[in-house]
Design a protein that fits this description.
Elements: E1 5-6, E2 11-16, E3 22-28, H1 38-48, E4 66-69, E5 71-72, E6 75-76, E7 81-86, H2 93-96, H3 108-115, H4 131-146, E8 151-159, E9 162-163, H5 170-176, H6 187-202, E10 209-216, H7 230-239, E11 244-249, H8 260-263, E12 267-270, E13 273-276, E14 284-285, E15 288-289, E16 294-300, E17 310-314, E18 319-323, H9 334-355
Length: 368
């Protein structure tokens, strides 16, 4: 299977399956000498792990990270960093009875059509559990970006049909997101989101939503014309996350109903910098960063695993069949996608900053 590696200079390769022994990532291209500990990575994995609240799957994985290479005496070596977590709370029995019955909305059918022989346990390689490796790698990318003044924030702006109507500030995101199970920057809206999510879950159904990402202090000049535009690579990275069905940068699809005079970010001087009066472009013009905050949103579909009966086909018998899933599922995946989406944006920005020379490979040389 190809397609498991992402990035050019800052490169990651994820490995492992949902119910396999371990799941993890190999990260290459990290400058030598950067302070890095398992605790740095664990903080991000704890945000992604299951069993955090009543709106996530109860699968009880600690996701304790182990770094097996690339770090010595608390600093990166400049060599590949291998990280993994052990899958502990695995229950494959519910999947044995349906191994020839592709689950609607999942990758079961397409994996079977492409590869024939697949790991049916919990979705195997196509499961959301694969994102453990992305978040572990993203923790390193975030630390590298933070050392260069760049901050990435993510939050749920819509879930189960309930949306945040007013723009929220970075301060509100920092203050509120980790204090409610929906990871919403508006606490009152978060409560209504949770109520609607649990209401649908009680009926055996699931819900989707929208997650917004903001990158602050991104330097201008990232991205290359024509096929390696920064927004194109961000969109590719975010679309690679399971359950993401759409990406928009800046005002996105809203621009289709507006006039050019409304959409264009008119320019002015702020000291010795050229800035826009607005940021409808989401910090990117012509595929190159402007220096304004990068803003992206992703459309997250309802979790495909639901307990309502559904129709499928038994591929062993080539007969239509009914499917009723049993197991542990997320009623809404938005809260757990937040750290995954942040990580993918961080990976793109770290890679492009290295490619543009904004981060030197010798950035930490001689540091203590």
């Amino acid at each position: 299977m190809s397609g498991n590696t992402f990035g050019k200079i800052f490169r990651i390769t994820t490995h492992g399956e949902s119910h396999g022994p371990v799941i993890g990532v190999v990260v290459d291209g990290v400058p030598a000498g950067m302070p890095l500990s398992e605790a740095d990575v664990q903080r991000e994995l704890d945000r992604r792990r299951p069993g955090q609240s009543i709106v996530t799957t109860p699968r009880a994985e600690k996701d304790k990270v182990e770094i097996s290479s690339g770090v010595f005496e608390g600093k990166t070596l400049g060599t590949p960093i291998c990280m993994f977590v052990r899958n502990v709370d695995v229950d494959s029995k519910p999947y044995e009875a349906i191994k020839t019955k592709p689950r609607p909305g999942h990758a079961d059918l397409t994996y079977w059509l492409k590869f024939g022989h697949i790991d049916h346990r919990g979705g195997g390689r196509g499961a959301a559990r694969e994102t453990v490796g992305r978040v572990a790698a993203g923790a390193i990318a975030k630390k590298l970006l933070a050392a260069n003044g760049v901050e990435i924030l993510g939050h749920t702006v819509e879930a189960a049909g309930v949306a945040v109507e007013q723009e929220v500030s970075p301060e509100e995101i920092r203050k509120n997101v980790e204090n409610n199970p929906m990871r919403c920057a508006d606490p009152k809206v978060a409560e209504e989101m949770k109520r609607r999510v649990l209401e649908a879950s009680a009926k055996g159904d699931s819900t989707g939503g929208v997650v917004e990402l903001v990158a602050l202090n991104v330097p201008p000049g990232l991205g290359d014309p024509v096929f390696e535009k920064l927004d194109a690579e961000i969109a590719r990275a975010l679309m690679s996350i399971g359950s993401v069905k759409g990406v928009e940068i800046g005002i996105g699809f809203k621009a289709t109903g507006m006039f050019g005079s409304e959409v264009n970010d008119q320019l002015r001087l702020k000291g010795d910098k050229i800035v826009g009066d607005t940021n409808n472009s989401g910090g990117i013009l012509g595929g190159i960063s402007t220096g304004m905050p990068i803003v992206a949103r992703i459309a997250v579909k309802p979790t495909p695993s639901i307990t309502k009966p559904q129709r499928t086909v038994d591929v062993a018998k080539m007969k239509e069949a009914e499917l009723k899933l049993e197991g542990r599922f997320d009623p809404n995946i938005c809260p757990r996608i937040v750290p995954v989406a942040e990580s993918m944006l961080a990976l793109v920005l770290a890679d492009h900053m290295l490619r543009a020379g904004k981060i030197s490979p010798n950035r930490f040389k001689g540091s203590k």
